[in-house]
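Below sits the subject:
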Amino acid sequence: MPRDNMASLIQRVARQAGLTFRSPAGPAFGENLHRLQQLLDEVRAEDLHLAPRGPSAAAAAAGGGPPWAGVVPPVSYMHICETENFSMGVFLLRSGACIPLHDHPGMNGMLKVLYGTLRIACMDTLPAGAAAAPPPPAAGSGPCLRALFRSRQHYTPASPPCLLSPHSDNLHQIDAVDGPAAFLDILAPPYDPQHGRDCHYYRLLEGPPAGAEPPALPREVWLVETPQAADFWCGGEPYPGPRVYL
């Protein structure tokens, strides 16, 4: 049997990701990205030998989290592979966990839910000077950004991948809803502070809605940059699925 037919699904995803993000400005990028979306949409938890659960106790030791011992982190990460062009891994969230609002400078990303339900809020930064009014007094001393709050949607294993690009949906917040959840994550290129791709966290500068319903989307909002929240950290766990060769 040809080797391509023997390759695991996650191997084919990795191979297509390498092809897609090798030339993100090339003429074939759109076609390659579409093929990658199709492959990613096929991935299920069982393909990666995962069963529904939150982060394990083993992740506490590897996560570099809070100083007290034995605390299971709210989120853990299973590294699958990484090149200079992309990284791929699995995030596991315990029930009620939140990955706070953060950015992906100059990066593309794809997220596919493997189990559970995620609520994902997506935003775009707006050009400096686009704001019609100054930021509210609650902004404090952190740098402020004007942003377009584009969407807030629920994603399940039946949903297509959630995408981000350098200019669209580049900021997002991810919440696990009604139980633990996990998602396969591709970032291209990977975070790298030495090349201007550090992760920045933000807080939405608005109070609770006056009525029963949240304000309609999309809408313009103010964000303030904040340190990483004290109650958020990410542990590490071994990846149990098929090995990926690059």
Observations:
- Residues 1-5 have pLDDT under 50 and may be disordered.
- The CA atoms of residues 61 and 70 lie 7 Å apart.
